[in-house]
């Protein structure tokens, strides 16, 4: 382990000890509290001084992140990003991120990963790490295609937005008016359900309704019809309940309003104009790609590829997209306003406007607890208050694949990561990158955020 993560561990272990001592001191004398606090403060100061010296010495070195057995308490107080501390050297931060990837590449913590960092309309980093196929030692490249899982949802909402701009739909178009046979357990409520409701997970259904049956190979069409059997968790439009099956009704709505298949419309209106040349829908297209990342599972000290699971491809709007990191660079540029000819500023504003509270997201992982003041869902995107700055975010997971995208719209700075195994390690790199760019206190989130989170499961 390099000096920077080691010293960070010392510092935050000291802070965790101080917090634990304070929380457990109820009933003790004031004198014992003061003594313990003094000792902990001294330890923290000593660690902080060491951190400052060692961090400077470690610049330019490879960073190896292997601290997942260490439990570090999240900061008690969420820091506030100071605009004056935001980096003016995004390229330098991208180079540092590249060194973090060097450390990961030297380990066996992942089978393969592709990452990109974008500032404004410029790609600062494009990097493949590890193997698309561990057995054949085929390396991950910029054109290696991965499954996007729930990052697919933003393509569905963008497609809906383009139909709204065409005048074929409205965000408040009633689903029942387009799909007359569709209903819910609350028939009256079903008549009120809108396009905006399904795309922001405000259907009123319990979280992930019938995903378990989808994973057992039940057909999408049957599961959509069976939604009418499920008692609602709240009235339509009143609360958040993450969905994959109900969300995918937008595919049926697209066909009903255009007479064309949903995925054809996305290819024509989004993939092709953005030059996302290797982006596709479906398992056959994935396996037909010139280079594609096999899903992997752990086997001893390495990884073993296996056959991709078909289940979530059946809900294409929710989880059906395949794309390379090079494709996703173009998508990120467009989402940050760099392709107004394809996605207008007005459309982006609609897509990124928060619509419903998702409070439990703020507690879903250590980095979220340490950085998020607020969490909401917009249209296919999570909108976080990240240490006082707006962060547009989504993560996704299907069997053998993980994906994560995030950007700071104010600064037009963002990143994408795609990986072909169920390791949680890369998830911690994203907040580390954001912290470094915003000038926030350094925390080795990649060393501690290895457990599954709310964004890692099913096709979330």
From TrEMBL:
Q: Any idea which GO molecular function terms this record carries? A: hydrolase activity
Q: What's the protein called, per UniProt?
A: Serine hydrolase domain-containing protein
InterPro entries associated with the record: AmpC-like, Beta-lactam-related, Beta-lactam/transpept-like
What is the annotated signal peptide range for this record?
1-23
Q: Where on the tree of life does the source sit, at the highest rank?
A: Bacteria
Give the matching SUPFAM superfamilies: beta-lactamase/transpeptidase-like
Query: What sequence ranges are listed for the domain Beta-lactamase-related?
Result: 97-424
Q: Is Signal one of the keywords?
A: yes
**What are the UniProt keywords, alphabetically?**
Hydrolase, Signal
